[in-house]
Amino acid sequence: MSQTAGKTISLERHGPVLIAIVDNPPVNALSHSVRAGLVDAVTEFENDGHVKALAIFCVGRTFIAGADIREFNKPLQEPRLGTLIERLDACAKPIIAAIHGTALGGGLEVALACSYRISLDSARFGLPEVKLGLLPGSGGTVRLPRLIGVENALTMISEGGQIAAGSAREKGLVDKVVAGDLKAEAIAFANEIIANGGRVRRTSDLPVPSFDTELLATKRSELAKKFRGFTAPQMAVDLIEMMTRTPFSEAAEEEYRVCKELIGSDQSKALRHLFAAEREALKISDVPADVKGRSVEKVAVIGPGVMGRGITITLLNAGLPVVLVGKSDASLEKALGAIRKALEGNVKRGAITANELILRMDLLTVTTAYESLHDVDLVIEAVTEDLEVKRSVFSQLDMVLGKQAIIATNTSFLDIDALAASVVRPENFAGMHFFNPANIMKLLENVRSSRSAPDVLATTMALGKRLGKVPVMVGRSEGFVANRMLSKRSREAQFLLEEGAAPQQVDKVLTGFGFPIGPFALADLAGMDVMAAARAARLARMTPREQRCDIVDKLAAAGRLGQKTGAGYYLYGEDRKPKQDPAVGELLATHRAERGFPQREISDQEILERCLYAMINEGAKIIEEGAAARASDIDVIWTSGFGWPTYLGGPMFYADQIGLPKIKQALEQYSTLVGEEYFKPAGLIEQLVAEGRGFHASPPFPPLK
Ligand code: 3H9
Q: Rounded to whole angstroms, how far apart are CA atoms 277 and 158?
């Protein structure tokens, strides 16, 4: 065996088998050095008469996970991925891809261009480009259908999902699935191929398998519903349709052209921004990466209400033992029943097995006694939003918890520093703000107090990830980030009704923008009684106009509590679809007359700008105050929590795309129209406009050359 040292590619000789080893941490992306190294490896393989088969093997946690996304923002450097793929395809001796971890995107395209594929039984395969607003650009759409059939390939390419090794073997994507030492297995497999004559198999030589052409139309309408507003999934169907009637190399060229076009598209820029933003959000800006979180092996949840139950289910789903604490046996019985029912629902849907349900319930104990919490590592407090109630819980916790145990409050608007001041060890205190329903919603705002210890913050982030959430660290601020920005959008939606807009107009504008549901249909879902109670809680801190803008109270007083009473802003029949109700029009007309607002025509543009720019302005204030560490954290919060369409990158990214000078000008215009207290541009916006910058540090994404 001999070895040639290379930067990211090294070669090993095992008799007649040459192995090209890819070592490009963290995920062996196809950076320039990997592409160039693999092209050199193919050249060496072709020129060396002693070696009869080449295997591509990766070290580290995964096979090649795709093109290097970071390079999309730079001019393309030869050899491009297509060149490497052509070399693999044209090689006169067999090449084998040896796959572990995930073969994704360009990584799978490399594997598809090889003669054979062998994988570990734990490996996974996918073409996730659509998730980045892209489509495969190096043969994925022309090779995969030839290998696994048009229908299977269309699903993988248009939805971006992954398949496991077993399924990949069944579909014909992989030739052999093995367990144990992949490198040794790949060498043995290569020797077998050599012994059988060293046959080269080119996917590009295969015919396109026949398929039912109706499939394309069915898929288009499915995708239109599932990925409303996304461009790439529909284009995937176009590409597949084209490849079924176009010669291989022509179809491959067209695929590359489309991929290049998509790399420069706004949707892809937004989705790539979010890919990076979600990973950046995991890093706490002022806590070094080597600060490790504390070990969390047992958790307590205080409060068996709706939030406490959802949080408990989330913890159980992650395999964590949970002690749920309530004030009475009756409340705990009720919570136990509700938790079991929710998990049974998961069994019915096939999300978990009946046995997994039993295992989860076995992890749960309920108690009214705080003494039993002496050995928990972390407590999530989810009791009533009342400072005194929370303080009394903390004093009981302080008496029993170990010195390293963390207390995390699920408060959604109380002052985190005031809460921290009421515990014995404020350094062990932070917030973990889950959103209802806590077992479903992905977003988790972890909240730092001014005294939280760095390793406590690291623990809440690591736990969030372990729970399958999208955790984002936020700072002290009323309502934190998501709800604080939402409250500005809600305020404007109410003001717009008051000035003459109809609920259905506002909802239509916002769903047309890309939100899954409009603010008024959402309020009907939440319940007007809940909305009225939230309003009452904030009333003292509202401006006089907000206090007098009491449409919610009027609807609630009229018994229009939303979907649950069949009427709210809309009327609901059996089908639960919102229908316009003249009675609401009358209620609004009376309200306007009482408050002295003449009815006026309000344009869709004004609705959109007032709702979105009010949020963006608040986002700027949040950054200014340090309640969010980065503009991109706000983008992650809004796309993972509150339905901001991911293909628009989040509010702060969107603002940069619109251009801050234009946003500032609109804010000034609405300052005059609605009031300075609502629309005066944030100092940060003024500053960034003066400096010619945007919220995001670099003006990203120069066009691809
Ligand atoms: C493509 O291939 C296009 C081609 O068809 C055609 C081209 C012409 N590049 O997610 P993690 C970084 S498009 C660069 O936390 P995990 C990531 O930013 C591509 N960097 O790990 C992070 O960096 P940091 C198609 C990448 O174990 C670190 O790796 N491929 C890339 O939870 C760890 O990432 C995809 O879309 C990349 N491609 O999950 C795959 N991927 O530590 C995208 C990751 O500095 N990747 N990084 O924050 C993934 O889905 C996951 O990263 C993976 C690992 C499942 C691989």
A: 24
Confidence of residue 698 (pLDDT cuts 50, 70, 90): low
Pocket flag, ligand 1, residue 635 (CB < 6 Å): no
**CB 171: neighbour CB atoms within 10 A?**
17
| CB 268 near ligand 1, within 6 Å | no
160 CB within 6 A, ligand 1: no
**Ligand 1 center–CA 65 separation, angstroms:** 6
Of all atoms in ligand 1, which is nearest to the CA of residue 69? 9
254 is catalytic: no
Nearest to 236 by CA among 133, 158, 329, 310: 158
**Cα–ligand 1 centroid distance for 172 (angstroms):** 25
Cα of 105 from ligand 1 centre, angstroms: 10
**One fold for both 2-263 and 605-691?**
no
> Percent of the chain having pLDDT more than 90?
94
Res. 6: pLDDT tops 90:
no
Q: Which amino acid is at 11?
A: L
Evaluate whether 382 touches 301 at the Cβ level (below 8 Å). yes
**631-641 and 266-281 helices cross at what angle (nearest 10)?**
100
User: Which sequence spans correspond to the domains of the chain?
Assistant: 2-263, 299-474, 501-506+516-599, 605-691
Q: Helix 214-226 crosses helix 232-244 at what angle (to 10 degrees)?
A: 170
The CA distance from 125 to 605, in Å, is 44
- Confirm or reject: Cβ of 137 under 6 Å from ligand 1: yes
Q: Is 562 in the pocket of ligand 1 (CB under 6 A)?
A: no
Cα 374 from Cα 371, distance rounded (Å): 6
pLDDT of residue 280: 95
Of 86, 27, 14, which is closest to residue 54 (Cα–Cα)?
A: 14
**Ligand 1 atom having least distance to the Cα of 137:** 6
Span 605-691: which CATH code?
A: 1.10.1040.10
CA distances to 11, 91, 147, 352 from 111, rounded to whole Å, are 18, 14, 12, 33
Q: Which residue has the tokens 């079924």?
A: 244
3-state secondary structure of 422: coil
- Region 502-521: mean pLDDT is 97
- Verify whether ligand 1 is closer than 6 Å to residue 134 (CB atom): yes
Per-residue pLDDT at 697: 74
pLDDT tens digits, residue range 590-643? 999 999 999 899 999 999 999 999 999 999 999 999 999 999 999 999 999 899
Pocket of ligand 1, candidates 27, 31, 33: which has the most ligand atoms within 8 Å of its Cβ, to mutate?
Answer: 27
The CATH number of the structural domain formed by 501-506+516-599 is: 1.10.1040.50
What type of residue sits at position 100?
H
Which is catalytic among the residues 44, 46, 109, 625? 109
100 Cβ contact list (under 8 Å, min separation 6) = 58, 62, 63, 119, 120, 122, 123, 182
Q: How far is the CA of 66 from the centre of ligand 1 (A)?
A: 7
- The tens digit of pLDDT for each residue in 267-305 reads 999 999 999 999 999 999 889 999 999 999 999 999 999
* Pairing of β 378-381 and β 95-99: unpaired
